[in-house]
Here is the input.
Amino acid sequence: FASLRCARFQKSGTSWLLTVSLQWLKNKLYRTLNSTIMQYINQQHCQVLDLQDPLTELRANFFLPEGVINMDGNSLGALPKSTVQRMQTAIQDEWGTGLIRSWSTAGWFESPTRIGDKIAPLIGANEGEVLVADTTSVNLFKALAAALSINKDRSIILSETGNFPTDLYMMQGISTFSKGVIQSKVVAPEAIISNLSEEVAVLLLTHVHYKTAYIKDMQYLTQKAHEKGVLVVWDLSHSVGSIEVDLNEAKADFAVGCGYKFLNGGPGAPAFIFVAKRHQLQANCVLSGWMGHQDPFAFTDEYVPANSIERFRCGTPVMLGMIALENGVDVFRQTSITALRKKAIQLSELFITLMTQECSSYGFTLASPADAKKRAGHVAFQHQEGHAIYQAIKRKDIISDFRVPDVLRFGITPMYTRFEDIYQVVMAIKEVMETKAWDRAEYQVRAAIT
Here is the structure.
């Protein structure tokens, strides 16, 4: 088209218009062809990365619905196939046939410490320092109260604005219960260090931010707190099973985390609590349930705490949840956190690169750190129509999530996320933006659960 001559139209005065029109058509065709070629190259590149992936066989461990791309493993991990059979055995044989005998014969009673010892290497803890029990919220209460029982002459729990709500709510709950004797103090993230003082009993921080995936410097912040005599509770809910964590290297005091995200323990899976060995005999568990007793089956009237991490047990373990969690944790025996982290960085870098290449003109802003060393197991983008976009791509069988006011989160779960999955997700987002599919009325209604 570009080489056509327009001399025959010069007398009519249309040569300029036709030349411009042909040049526009040429450019349009070039852009379309170039975009198609680039997409093809990117897809082929992703397929090659999948073929070269040393962790590719891990994907076979999971039940993954055909045609669905799960980018929300940071909220609820996928179901390990082996869990289905393990639960069948637990229900039919251990519960059905074994009945109450299974507390002994199937190892039910020891499960909180046994599973805790399996989680310990994932967070840099030693045997006997991690216990699986209850929920993250309940364990936060236990850890905060235990820290307060050690620093009994201090009265402030310190945290930061924007922390996960349940962390802040637990602080506020303790303050309310104490009728203001214990104060809940929340400051801007950049003001944490300057607010550490001899009045602060405990600092509560989340290691990986639930919206942005920003990784805090655990060792540095713990050291700064200890210089003022402040104990530290770390929330590892978005860290465990995703990035390297070394609680003992950082000299952490307490930590908590959930089992249903990267540990693939199932919805509402039991959580865990870490108590450093040096604190275990002096830290009081305010929720002094009978399972935390030194001899629970003595059935004495007076509570005597166990001389170990077991004092942080409360009531009877929720065994079906414990069994599913243990099976999810056992999958980690097939790989290492280092290998998973390496692939996760590759996946997230690819995601950011493709979003820049394909969707840079649609108003997305990277909400996660650009530096991969400071970014954990999900990638977050801000967009003023974030909720509607989230709804629109969900209709394309892409599972992600949304956090108010404008954050789209995409989980990076290297055990089963493929490089081609990243490509498909970005192209789906691009199509939603190109066609303005997000602007449908049904997508403007805020979902109750996001």
Notes: The chain has a mean pLDDT of 93. The chain has eleven helices and 15 strands.
